[in-house]
C-alpha cells in the first residue's frame, strides 16, 4: 500500500522542487505473519533439539552394549 503526499515548503535557499514517498508497513501481514512464524520457529528449534538428544542417547546405548548383545552391566 503506497501513499503519496504533496507538501509545499518555502525556503530562503531557493525554489528547487523535491518529492518524497511514504511507505506504510503492511500491518495486516505483520500481525498475521509474526504469530505464525514464532511458533513455527520454536517448533523447529525443539525438533532439532529432540533429534540431537536422541542421537546422543542412541550412541550411549550402542556403547553400553557388549559385542555379544548383552548390556555391559549384565553378569
Tally of individual domains: 1
Q: Which band does the percent of strand residues land in? A: 5-15%
Number of strands: 2
Order of helices and strands: EEH
Distance between the terminal alpha carbons, to the nearest Å?
A: 75 Å
| Portion in helices | 40-55%
Within the largest sheet, what's the order of strands? 1-2
Mean pLDDT value: 79
**Biggest sheet overview:** 2 strands, antiparallel
Structural class: mainly alpha
Annotation field: number of helices? 1
Shape: rod-shaped
Name some characteristics of this structure:
1 helix; two-stranded antiparallel sheet; mainly alpha
Quick structural gist:
With 75 residues, this protein is mainly alpha-helical. Helices cover 51% and strands 8% of the residues.
Tell me what the structure shows.
By secondary structure, the protein is mainly α. It has one domain (2-64). Helices cover 51% and strands 8% of the residues. It has one helix and two strands.
Amino acid at each position: 500500500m503506497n501513499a503519496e503526499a504533496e507538501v509545499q515548503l518555502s525556503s530562503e535557499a531557493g525554489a528547487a522542487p523535491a518529492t518524497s514517498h511514504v511507505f506504510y508497513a503492511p500491518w495486516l501481514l505483520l500481525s498475521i505473519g509474526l504469530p505464525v512464524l514464532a511458533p513455527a520457529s520454536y517448533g523447529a528449534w525443539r525438533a532439532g533439539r529432540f533429534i540431537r538428544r536422541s542421537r546422543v542417547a542412541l550412541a550411549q546405548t550402542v556403547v553400553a552394549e557388549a559385542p555379544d548383545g548383552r548390556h555391559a552391566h549384565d553378569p
